[in-house]
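Researcher: Structure prediction, please.
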Amino acid sequence: MASKSCFILAFFIAISFSSMDIGLAARNLLQTTPSIPLPKPTLPTIPTIPTLSPFPTIPTLPQGIVPPLPPMPTLPQGNVPPLPTMPTMPTMPTIPTIPQALPPLPTLPSLPNMPSIPFMSPPPSTTTP
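Model: Predicted structure follows.
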């Protein structure tokens, strides 16, 4: 894997050096050749657009006679049965209420006195501040 990456790196370095030589050679050629004025090409003339005659008028469409719409039908006026009544819903059970005051927390017994552990005191300083 390492030899492959080294080969690719060497390839890119060789390409970059070769392009530098080509660039320098091209620049040298551009600087040494005298500039010869090139002949200007002759352009053909652009043809003119012919004028169009005015558009013909659109003929009017014939107005036909539209027959009248038929009358709206009437709905029957028969006896309509009454809507069924909704059945009664059973009553919901009551939810017990939550007490607002919390009961007091139990008190913890006090811990016995712990004996103090003597610590080593630091050595006395030899210099005075």
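Model: The chain has a mean pLDDT of 80.
Researcher: Thanks, that helps.
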